[in-house]
Structures are given as structure tokens and as C-alpha cells.
Amino acid sequence: MNPALKSLLLFASLGLSAAACVEFSGMERPSDWTPAEGDAGGAGGGSGAAGSQAGSAGAGATDGGKAGSGGNVGACKSPSDCDDGNPCTKNDCVNGACAFAPYDAGASCDDDSLCNGHETCDGQGQCKPGTPPSVDDGNACTIDACDPKTGVTHKPNNCDDNNACTGDSCVPTSGCNHAQVPVDDGNVCTLDSCDPQVGVKHEAVSCNDTNLCTNDSCEPLSGCVHAPVEVSDGNNCTEDKCDPVGGITHTLKVAFSQCGSTCPAGFHVGSMTCDVSCGGSCQAPNRSNCDPDCGGSFSVCGLSCPAGYKSTGNSCDPACGSCQLSNNKTMCVMQ
């Protein structure tokens, strides 16, 4: 029986109108069908635009057409559905399927990094790496680096070692150099040193020998000098001395008397007396009054003057002893 007629008789027996159904050949698609929906009873010979789920369902059809092939992976509606993340292929949608045609060789696939060169496509859909820029400038006095956005940089190398006792510099072939700064100032009157924090120091040498009888000084070429101090006060009536601990003293020369007719060096007989304590019956002067050899002038018992003085005349003076027949006293003045 004609299949169409058979269907009409079936619907009639059920009380249905013949217009309630339409026979499908298995090739027709409803007007609202889309590939994404996957036709459960779809035609086995479809274009494959339907998803893989549609193809699987098509395999269970009991009437009309062949089972679906499963469709193409990458079903699409527009090129925006087909981004494969490959900069060397053109993303396209052809008859509901994604297509990825390679760009021509030499097309840019640059990753915008200035540190790995300019990348280009090989015409086969592959991105070839570029030639990285040279970073090392061969100068040990620069720090070489590369920034993806700004490119190669050569910043000066900081050679400062924070030591004030070194002169910091940089030699392009060998790098940082830290030479010791000169410390010796050529002056033996200074102690030369260097402190890493404050730098070179020249401290004065102490020439003090703790001797009060020397004047201490320093000569830049020869060093410490300890010259004797001037002891004399210019007064020949004082005895000038210097003690290393106590220093200079000026002691006044004091007259004294002693038995006899002479006085020690530095003193002269100014007059004489008779003193029974000096022995004898004291018939003649036997004690000398000794005066210091000092001052501008003085008289001396006798006929000569001490060193440094000259005679201005002689006279007779009982204070110097018997002078009945001759002079016994001399007037002395400083030469």
C-alpha cells in the first residue's frame, strides 16, 4: 500500500484530521532548527553543522535517512566563535564550522616585548621567535638589563663602598676600583690616619717631654725639638737654676761671714773683723765678711777685682786690716 495512503487511513481510524500531520522524507528541517539544538531524529546525511550530540541522537532513527555522522567539532555562527589563540591563523566561520587559515610568512605575531625580538609567522600557522637584542654592552661599569616595555638599559654601576678612606672609581674593562686615599702629609709633626667614617686625619704630635727645663717644639722636617730654657734673669745678684720638675728658680745671693781672710768663688771680701771664735788673741782681723760678686760696683779688700770687674782705684781702709804704710782696698766697677 502507498505509505501516504496508509497514513491517511490510520489518522482517519483515530478520528484525526489528515491535516494534523505531514510526512517527512527525513531531509527536511523545521524553520526554527539551529545547529546548537541537535536534531534528535536528524538526517543522517546532514551537513554536520549540528553538534556532536545531534549526530549521536540521529543514530537512533527508525525511519527515513541515515544515522548522523556526529558533526564537525568547532561549530560556529560567526568568526568571533572561533578564536584559537594563535596569532598566525585567521579565525573564520565557514558553513557553521570554524576555519583557521594561516597568515602569510613574515606576518607579525609580535608579543609586544622588546626583550625577545620581533616574532613573525612562518606561513604554516606557527609563530617563529625573533632575535633578542644584545644586552651586554661589554662595559663593566654599567648594569645591563632589559625591560619588556622600554627595552635595553645600561645604568651606571655604583662603586661607592661608603668608605671615606678609599677613592672609588670604575674601569670599563675590570669594574669597580677602591684605591686607598693618600694619608701621609709629609709632616713629621702630625700623626696621619684615616677613619672610614670621617676620612683622613692629621693630628698634632705631642712633643712634651715633661721637662720644665726645655722648650718643646716640632719642626715639620725633623720632628720634635727640646731646646734648653733661658735660665738667667739678667740679674747677676741672683743664682739662676732650673729643676726638670720644679722649673726655673732665681735665688738672691746673700752675704755671709767666715773665719779667714778669703771667700769662695763668686764672693769677695768686703770687710774684715776680729772674732775670738775664729781663734788667736784677735790682735788682727781674722773673720771675712763675704759679699757676692754682683751689682754695678763694689769695694774689695785687697788690690784686685773679681772677673768681670775692673779697678778704679785703691785706698787704705782699716776695715780691711792694717793699712799704715800701704793701700789695702780696691774700688771695682763692671767692665
N-end to C-end Cα span: 184 Å
Count of separate DSSP helical elements: 2
Radius of gyration: 68 Å
Structural class: mainly beta
Poorly predicted residue ranges: 1-73
Tell me about the biggest sheet? Answer: 3 strands, antiparallel
> Average pLDDT, to the nearest integer?
81
One letter per element, helices H and strands E, the order comes to: HHEEEEEEEEEEEEEEEEEEEE
Physical arrangement of strands within the biggest beta sheet: 15-17-16
Strand portion: 25-35%
Count the E strands: 20
Based on Cα principal axes, name the global outline. rod-shaped
- Percentage of helical residues? under 10%
Topology:
Blueprint: H1 3-13, H2 52-58, E1 89-94, E2 97-102, E3 120-121, E4 127-128, E5 142-147, E6 151-156, E7 166-171, E8 175-180, E9 190-195, E10 199-204, E11 214-219, E12 223-228, E13 238-243, E14 247-252, E15 256-259, E16 267-273, E17 287-292, E18 297-301, E19 309-315, E20 329-334
Antiparallel strand pairs: 1-2, 3-4, 5-6, 7-8, 9-10, 11-12, 13-14, 15-17, 16-17, 18-20, 19-20
